[in-house]
Design a protein that fits this description.
Blueprint: E1 16-19, E2 22-25, H1 34-39, H2 47-69, E3 75-79, H3 89-103, E4 107-110, H4 116-126, E5 131-136, E6 150-154, H5 157-166, E7 170-173, H6 178-192, E8 201-204, H7 206-221, E9 234-237, H8 240-282
Parallel strand pairs: 3-4, 3-7, 4-5, 5-6, 7-8, 8-9
Antiparallel strand pairs: 1-2
Helix pairs in contact: 2-5, 3-4, 3-8
């Protein structure tokens, strides 16, 4: 006999963790994550054997991510707190943002969890856009929200981070905690150092972020740790339309810049070929 959910009476499904194609429940769930086991320097005795296998697992996550996301339309990665409640200002803002991005032709990529991530995915989904969730194995499973169209569960943070950057034309960061700050400053570092093609970083939640930006300007930049131009990498706004417009305009400017470079290369190559032909004719 089973209840209306198809479960035996009195049978508690307990906690669930998804690890790739594997589902673990109750006592089968390990007490540590794949990232923790990889980075724990105390258990180095078996690194020659176990870490070699881990390298193959890591490679498989990159292959799975690249293969799944390769055909995405232009996309924007949206970050924010998993702890935000659905009626919070940032969740309402994230839902409006997701819808506006979808209407502008962008897929929306989030961490796939609850809170701000779910709101952005919902906005994109309900507006007819493509909604992507990149989940991560955590000690307390969050699970992918119901508004995700394309979902990938990752074991390793660094593989997941690569997908956020590789397939996004912009980052939009709403109020969040350590994970959100990590993504924000990684994006700024990649752009500042030229490790990625320049793309916009938008902060939404003016009251939430104003103190951080004041500190960046009045302490970090004033002390010479970053340049004044580095502050221009960030756009702060609570206006959804302004945020999307900034992303669209930045993409158009970058496309025009890249096209100008290509035209210059073609012109220079043509001039070199003509000069070589003329020299050959003289000879």
């Amino acid at each position: 006999m089973s209840d209306s959910n198809g479960q035996a009476p009195g049978r508690d499904p307990g906690r669930t963790r998804h690890r790739g194609s594997v589902t673990l429940r109750r006592k089968a769930i390990p007490s540590s994550t794949a990232d923790q086991r990889l980075l724990d320097s105390r258990g180095r005795g078996d690194w020659k054997t176990r870490d070699s296998w881990r390298a193959l697992r890591i490679l498989s996550e990159f292959v799975e991510g690249f293969d799944t996301l390769a055909d995405l339309p232009p996309a924007v990665s949206v970050f924010g707190s998993a702890r935000s409640t659905p009626d919070s200002p940032e969740c309402r803002l994230a839902e409006q943002l997701g819808a506006a991005l979808a209407r502008a032709g962008y897929a929306v990529i989030t961490g796939g969890g609850p809170g701000v991530m779910e709101a952005a995915n919902r906005g994109a989904n309900e507006a007819g856009g493509l909604s992507v969730g990149l989940g991560i194995e955590l000690p307390f499973e969050q699970g992918l929200n119901d508004w995700v169209d394309v979902a990938i569960d990752f074991r390793y943070f660094f593989a997941r981070k690569t997908m956020f950057v590789k397939y996004a034309q912009a980052f939009v960061v709403l109020p969040g905690g350590f994970g959100t700050m990590d993504e924000l400053f990684e994006a700024l570092t990649l752009v500042q150092t030229g490790k990625v093609t320049r793309f916009p970083v938008v902060l939404m939640g003016v009251d939430y972020w104003r103190g951080l930006l004041d500190w960046l300007r009045d302490t970090m930049a004033a002390d010479g740790k970053i340049g004044p131009i580095d502050l221009e990498l960030i756009r702060l706004t609570d206006d959804v339309d302004a945020a999307v417009r900034h992303i669209v305009e930045a993409e158009a400017a970058l496309s025009a810049e890249q096209e100008a470079v290509r035209e210059e290369v073609v012109a220079r190559t043509g001039a070199d070929q003509r000069a070589a032909a003329e020299q050959g004719g003289e000879g």
